[in-house]
Amino acid sequence: KRKEIMKNLNRHLLPLVIGLVFATVIWQVGEIMLADFWSKTCLSIFGSAFVELPTMDKNGIPMRYYPSAGKVYDPELIAYESSRFYKTRIEETRKNAFLLYSKWLEDNLDANGNIPNNYDYPKAGLKKPWYSAAGNSATMLALAQRAGNLHSPETFIKARKMLYNLQPEKGNFSFYEKDGGIWFQEFPTEPYSLSGMLKTLVNLAEYQKMVEDSLSQKLFQQGVIALKSKLPELAKKNLLDDKYHYKNKRIEHIELVSLLEDVNSATPDSVFTPFIQNYKAKSKQFVLFQFFSPFQPGRIIGYLFGWAILYLIAYLFLKPRKDREV
After folding, report:
1. Which of 229, 270, 236 is nearest to 256 (CA)?
2. More confident residue, 81 or 317
3. What distance in Å separates the CA atoms of residue 74 and residue 53, rounded to the nearest whole number?
4. In 10 A of CB 190, how many CB atoms?
């Protein structure tokens, strides 16, 4: 009986080890691609996913899927896509997309000249309409680009007003840090969102490069002061994270590091270079260590699911032929 038990254990042990090795290698080099593929597949088949994803409406306007909100028009995404197509507008289709997206943004400004998020966002406890520095600054940049392309002073005035509204004294998009500088908010209910802060600084830097506005330069410089002071506290064990976003934590970390690099390249003395080196090392760390520093249950569950599938494949492949025939 003991021999039979040991035989059964050995029959399962090798497939378990093979599955473990393959799962670890695959997750080390391909977790990002796997997570992206699985999420998009779930959204296309089931109409839902565990993470936020970009999509489009029937008219070609970008939308974003949020697990807690469904498919919504996210002004920050639309403005980002508008600016992306603006940079490659030499192609007619891209120029048309840029004009379509930037027109949508201009048409959807509210009475105060800001761009509202017209959807509820339960994860952050937000009811529509709510406002974001990331969305407002991205729209500001897109409208400035639209104004330049169409030679429209009226549109540029709208962009300039959005810049003006980013000041702590003028709206609800930012606040003065007690240790110096200005922090730009993505969510009114969460003061310190790294994603929103970094995106706002990138947009201010792009706007400054395009318009050479002293106010955008001042706001960028003040934002850099606040970010430099707060970043060590927000980076938990060198992992950059935003608790109100639905993303694979590894993907989110890499995206935030990329945004930080963009901010760093716009600062005269590259003040964030030491931080970036540490954060990049984190994303290359052995994947099993990443799961627990800090603890990331979502990634662990995905890994265990992949391990189980690979174990089953190995078990069936290694199963003796007579057992298969039975």
Report:
1. 236
2. 81
3. 11
4. 16
Whether 306 has a pLDDT exceeding 90, the answer reads yes
**Is 188 within 8 Å of 129 (Cβ atoms)?**
no
**Position 154 confidence tier, pLDDT thresholds 50, 70, 90:** very high
List pLDDT tens digits, range 213-247: 999 999 999 999 999 999 998 988 888 888 888 88
| Bond from prior residue into 320 cis (ω within 30 degrees of 0) | no
Retrieve residue 248's tokens.
């694979």
Please, is 174 exposed, middle or buried when counting C-beta atoms within 10 Å of its C-beta (0-12, 13-18, 19+)? Answer: buried
Q: Which two tokens stand for residue 34?
A: 């796997």
Report how far residue 27's alpha carbon sits from residue 30's, in angstroms, rounded to the nearest whole number.
5
Summarize pLDDT for 156-205 with one digit per residue, the tens.
999 999 999 999 998 789 999 998 999 999 998 888 999 999 999 999 99
Q: How many helices (H) and strands (E) does the chain have?
A: 12, 5
**Band of the pLDDT at 326, cuts 50, 70, 90?**
very low
Could you tell me where the beta strands, DSSP code E, fall in the chain?
53-56, 62-66, 70-72, 174-176, 182-184
The answer to whether residues 280 and 258 touch, using CB atoms and an 8 Å cutoff, is: no
- Dihedral sign of CA atoms 302, 20, 254, 292 in order: positive
Place of tokens 């506005």: 213
Whole-number CA gyration radius for the chain: 24
- 273-283 vs 249-266: helix crossing angle, rounded to 10: 160
Please identify which residue in the block is written with the tokens 């927000």: 234
Q: Which helix (H) or strand (E) holds 149?
A: helix 133-150
- Tell me the C-alpha distance between 32 and 251, whole Å: 6
Residue 306's Cβ-side half-sphere holds a number of Cα atoms within 13 Å equal to: 20
User: Length of the chain, please?
Assistant: 326
Using alpha carbons, select from 54, 160, 135, 149 the residue that is nearest to residue 94.
149
CA distance 287 to 290: 5
**Would you call 114 exposed, middle or buried from its count of C-beta atoms within 10 A (0-12, 13-18, 19+)?**
buried
Distance CA 283, CA 103 (A): 38
Contact 257, 240 (CB under 8 A): yes
